[in-house]
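Supplementary Note 3. Input sequence used for the single-chain structure prediction.
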Amino acid sequence: MHLMTLFLTLGLLWPVGPPPPEILRGWQPPPGPYAPGHRGVDLAAPPDTPVLAPAAGTVTFAGPVGGRGVLTLTLPGTGIPPLRTTFSPVTPLVTAGTRVTAGTPVARVAPNTHCPRSCLHWGLLRGDTYLNPLTLTKRPPSRLLPVGG
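The predicted structure, written as discrete structure tokens, is reproduced below.
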């Protein structure tokens, strides 16, 4: 299923905000499974900011990974395997197995040094393939500006 079709079907929300948060670091897919890259986006968010479910789904993981709190939300009806969206570093508010609706607080941003200033790392996967979570957000249309002056 195409990601734009999924957005229109799911009506995804930003996980922090409104308004849409500042993007501190964008998605930089790695050239290989073990190569360096940035497998998500970093959204500006102070510690204790509520993290909202961007769509209805089931929490499939909520706990520590490598010393940081992580929450994974699996999105039903998004193909096989289904899309999974991840959030870190967070303090989960719900446990694995919890079904949530879009906009439900699922975690709070934990204090972190992942970014130069506090942020939420938001990831998106289908199986083992990382995708750009920003493809699921509603953004204003692009505008072309005049060249030079």
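Residues 61 and 72 are 5 Å apart (CA to CA). Helices lie at 3-10.
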